[in-house]
Amino acid sequence: MLTVASLALGFALLIPGQDASADSKALFNGKDLDGWKHVGPGKFVVEDGLLRTEGGMGLLYYEKEKLGDCVIKVVYKTKDRRSNSGLYIRIAEAPAEPWYAVHHGFEVQIADGGHGSRGTGSIYTFAESAAKPAEPGEWNTLEVTLKGTRVTTTLNGQPAADFDSTTLKADAGDKTGPGDPARTPREPSGYIGLQNHDDGSVVTFKEVSVRPLAAK
Is 216 a member of any domain? Predict the structure, then answer.
């Protein structure tokens, strides 16, 4: 498990050309998919220092370690309003297929044409987003703070969603609708992943990084 202490020791690492702050660790190195593994249809490609979705629905997850309490930052842009992706967090185990992450993790949605609990910055179907993304083709900064059972998000510096998973129950039963995630509790640490959603969705990332929570 990646702890705050181990993050603090290792996060002086900076990758040239990335915007990660001095206490951050870049998970995407801007060159290749080192440390990442893809499952399911479609793929991610690396071109000109950027990471881009192709086809889907698949999942590219960071397989080197699980993340506990921390702040995850992704900088992305969409081709158009219908382009769809997401940042998965708290994935309990290494997924053999993309649907495992849906039901055993949370998705922080990237869908600039979506609304409410299905729009960018939301905790998909669990908590609505109050923030609006930039125009298609412009870069957005999405930050996700993980602290115990609580997940909060910001989009371009604006508060987006706030969710405490203590509201979930082990006996909650199945998902509420087709494609919706299970309503059961998640693990306190897990893998993270990026979704490639479908043939028509193109989402490009230039940064995926993680940093420890600020001491209080």
Answer: no
* Residues 75, 83, 129, 102, Cα dihedral to 10°: -90
C-beta of residue 155 within 8 angstroms of C-beta of residue 140: yes
Q: Which burial class, exposed, middle or buried, applies to 54 when counting CB atoms under 10 A from its CB (0-12, 13-18, 19+)?
A: middle
Query: What is the spatial distance between Cα 144 and Cα 131, in angstroms, rounded to a whole number?
Result: 13
Alpha carbons 107 and 91: distance in angstroms, whole number: 9
pTM score, two decimals? 0.87
pLDDT tens per residue, range 4-59? 334 333 333 333 333 445 689 999 999 999 999 999 999 999 999 999 999 989 99
Parent domain of 108: 4-211
Per-residue pLDDT, 15: 31
Of 160, 182, 162, the C-alpha closest to 92 is 182
Give me 122's structure tokens: 């939301």
Contact 79, 199 (CB under 8 A): no
Domain tally, the chain:
1
Q: What share of the chain is helix, strand, coil (3-state, %, to 5)?
A: 10, 40, 50
**Cβ neighbours of residue 106 closer than 8 Å, sequence gap 6 or more:** 88, 89, 90, 123, 124, 126, 151, 163, 165, 181, 186
Give CA angle at 190 (201, 165), nearest 5°. Answer: 85
